[in-house]
Amino acid sequence: MSGNGWPTIRRFARTLDEAFPDSRAGWSEGWARPHHNRWASRLLAVCIGVALAVVLVRWIDWSIA
């Protein structure tokens, strides 16, 4: 109970899972959960960065030639 005698009730849901208790709402909040496989996330980020760097270097090389 709060100080005014009324029970404290959350007026609005904090997450989509609370607002829409459906199995389809869980995928949209995957970023909020702790990562269980951090090495895979880091490896993916490095691969994306290297691929973007290669594309950028090739584009600059092509535009100069």
What keyword list fits this structure?
2 domains, elongated, 65 residues, mainly alpha, 48% helix
Could you explain how this protein is built, in words?
This protein has 65 residues and is mainly α. It folds into two domains: 1-33, no CATH class; 37-65. Helices cover 48% and strands 0% of the residues. The protein has helices at residues 16-19, 38-64. 0% of the residues are buried.
What does this entry show, briefly?
By secondary structure, the protein is mostly helical. The chain has helices at 16-19, 38-64. The chain is elongated.
List the SSEs and their pairings.
Blueprint: H1 16-19, H2 38-64
In angstroms, what is the radius of gyration? Answer: 23 Å
- Tell me what portion of residues adopts beta-strand conformation: under 5%
Uncertain regions spanning at least 5 consecutive residues: none
Bulk shape:
elongated
Distance between the termini: 74 Å
Largest sheet: none
User: What's the pLDDT, averaged over the residues?
Assistant: 76
Question: What structural class do helix, strand and pairing data support?
Answer: mainly alpha
Helix share of residues?
40-55%
Order of helices and strands: HH
Query: What is the strand tally?
Result: 0
Overall tally of domains:
2
What is the tally of helical segments?
Answer: 2
